[in-house]
Amino acid sequence: MDALVIGAGGFVGSYLIQELNRKPLHVGATVLPREHIRSGNCDVFTLDIMQESEIRNLLQTHRPKQIYHLAAQSSVAASWKNPELTIDVNIKGTLHLLEAVRSIEEYYPRILLVGSGEEYGYRKSGYPKSVYFRPVSEETPLHPGNPYAMTKACQNMIGSLYAKAYGMGIVMVRAFNHIGVGQSPTFVAADFALQIAEIEAGFRAPVIQVGNLSAKRDFSDVRDIVRAYTLLMEKGYAGETYNVGSGHAVAIQELLDMLLEMSSESIVIEKNPARMRPSDVPVMEADISRLCQDTGWKPEYPLEETLRTMLNHNRKNFGLL
Ligand code: A2R
């Protein structure tokens, strides 16, 4: 097997498989028992990352040359409700994978561990503004502000330790916000695109519910993100961490404006306190120079095009297109 995607039943997995399918690679993917792969050609296996023997058996049998580790408890809200599960899946799960690889003789795959821009968190007050609003480079100190971010920061440390201590071919990424068709409406862009399509279809009054519109985030099309993952798998330095994002922060207000402009409905914006997060980080912007320098990657999808694709997908689902 050339490439194995672990945790492929989520949002990113099928995009990554489709990206891998652009080359003549033998691709495998793992899902939890109740999950399936939405699209792409691959051999599918069921795997719970908490079962170390399951991983070892799978790797021993198929010896994938590349392993993309996406499996995670990836919801920030769920990580507050169930920190133990988040620690188990995100930290112990990663450890299980790396120990399983280590236990197999003469086996030296490349491994990509997917972390998050959330690891940087809220930079402490006291920084001068010029520092505070600067894009975060991989060397910026981490201040994870929730259990999910904390587990991803820990995953990063484990990856970097194992690369150094055992000479393993592990590359770590910190992915910033990625959006696209198939994303859960618990994420802001998917939520707005769904609400607007529902309004157009007459399923809801012409009022869009919003949270904090002033926060700025670094949004990318998920297809750009997975292309960066495959390039890093090939060209990233082992033991190194790479930010993956657009390199430009956009206010949630701007994102909303772009979507509203795509609709002919006159829609009222209503702030909903339930959607406000008091500890929101005001600006998250990635410094992506290391990624660009080491891989030659550049984003290809303009934000507006991605948003239009998401909105049109919902319109199709509601029979409007
Ligand atoms: O939580 P679920 O039921 O949606 O399943 C998720 C799955 N997963 C597991 N897989 C194997 N063993 C486990 N014990 C386990 N627990 C959860 O990993 C889900 O199908 C997949 C991760 O996909 P998403 O949650 O949709 O994340 P997404 O957006 O695809 O992001 C991929 C990676 C994750 O590591 C994120 O934390 C990172 O990129 O941003």
Give the gist of this structure:
With 321 residues, the chain is an alpha/beta fold.
What does this structure look like?
With 321 residues, this protein is an alpha/beta fold. The chain folds into 2 domains: 223 residues, 3-Layer(aba) Sandwich (Rossmann fold); 73 residues, UDP-galactose 4-epimerase, domain 1 (Alpha-Beta Complex), CATH 3.90.25. The chain is 41% helix and 16% strand. It is built from 11 helices and 13 strands. The strands form 4 sheets. Strands 3-2-1-4-5-6-11 form a 7-stranded parallel beta sheet, with helices on both faces. A two-stranded parallel sheet has the order 7-10. Strands 8-13 form a two-stranded parallel ribbon. Helix 1 links the parallel strand 1 and strand 2. Helix 1 crosses helix 8, helix 4 runs parallel beside helix 6 and helix 7 crosses helix 11. The protein starts with a strand and ends with a helix. The model has no long low-confidence stretch (mean pLDDT 94). Bound molecules: ligand A2R. The site of ligand A2R has 22 residues, from helix 1, helix 4 and strand 5.
